[in-house]
Amino acid sequence: MLFAVGEGKATNIKLSKYHFGVIEELYAQRNEEEIFFKLEEKYERLKEHHTVKQIEPPIHLQNILRPYQISGFQWLNYLSEVSWGGILADDMGLGKTVQALSFLHHYKREHTKIRALVVCPTSLMFNWENEIKKFTPSLTWYIHHGSTRSQQMELYQNADVIITTYGTLRSDIQLFTESDFDYVILDESQAIKNPQSKVTKAASLLSAKNRLCMSGTPLQNNTFDMYAQMNFLNPGMLGSMEFFRQEFAIPIDKFGEKDQKEHLRKLLYPFILRRTKEQVAKDLPEKSEMILFCEMNEEQRRIYDAYRNDYRDKILGVVEEKGANKSQLTILQGLMKLRQICDSPAIVNDDEKYPNVSVKLEELGREISENIGNHKALVFSQFLGMLALIKEKMKELGIDYAYFDGSTSAPDREKAIQRFQTDENCRVFLISLKAGGVGLNLTAADYVYIVDPWWNPAVEQQAIDRTHRIGQTKNIFAYRMICKDTVEDKILKLQERKRALAADLITDDTSFVKALTKEDVEYLFS
After folding, report:
1. How confident is the model at residue 351 (pLDDT cuts 50, 70, 90)?
2. pTM for the whole thing?
3. CATH class entry, domain 27-277
């Protein structure tokens, strides 16, 4: 953080005093009376309008949005009309992002312009970018993140949608408070559940006509999780922190008082929209497949770049000399090492030992502990070293799991399968991709994570179909974890570029390499 916000060289960094006290300073200057006055105004508006209008979603999305998503779009429009903030709390995988984007598109069409800020975890920045490209391409966007962001102020000023992270919001709060936004959206808003944290205070300082939180798990630990999110959305609505603690948090969390629980539920009810997978099952496809983009931290990126540069020179030399067909082994070795570094440099079998710096481990931990609730998940990796690291991560988070790989005996496999299928506490099954590819029936799971996607979709499909088979009554959500701007990202793009030839070239691992041209190899290692 110091290197990102400081000026000058590594040996002599100059910091602005703002980087220390600015959030507290600005927070202390808030006008509490004005907040109360605005709240009264909002209540008046709520009394006048209490029906959700059945407005049509954007024409180009009418055949894409499912019925419950159209209802979500209409609810967002209602919140905008009455100027109240709300939480879109649909289960993970039900398309909260497309509902929000369809509304932003509608808002821009109605008002001819929009200025929206989306704050999300780092891994979701590129998901937002991709969903905008896919569903609302008429919206312009800009990702405000990284060390060069201060040089891109023109993009910041002119984009319809600015996408940033919680960390950058905290660092650049001075800049953000100078803007008046039509919309501020906090994605995975459980990030601001602690009312005293800097990031919660920073979010509260933003100036916006409309505010939206999105989270499949807005309440993770206790009633107090709701206070900060609701206070960001509708400041003052739940009173002071001490009032909320005495009136609701202690009676509900400590003594389970039903009256207070019901009272709070009624207070929150108009401002939270939650649909579970079970409720909307008939509207869902049986199987949804998505990409979870991850962005490496500096150290992982540095190791990746060094390896890539090394291998690129070596491989292009071999390709030049022998042609792409006769260089398969060298290409495969290089690709495998780069893919391992995308998982974690610690699993690379090399003379030099690397640290365990892994964005995927962090993301997987966050997904399973924060996002999937009580659902069960299968986690597949091709690398045993990565599965070992995931085991450690599950232990650290206190999550019960089952495990097997190719070396697990048949009786032990059966035991692991039975435990996962029948024991409610066992929420995660870690399986090596090759061992778990065939013959398994794991219908207790409805989430699947493929940690290191391969370019043979058939193998991945078999893994996903461990849970998507006869006897499965739930809808399946499958996530492929991809490190942004790496060989994994490029393999995806190559798959798209060559989709027309897919039947010929993606039959097994080696045939993919055989079908690569010299240009493809240069692209993969660029």
Report:
1. confident
2. 0.66
3. alpha beta
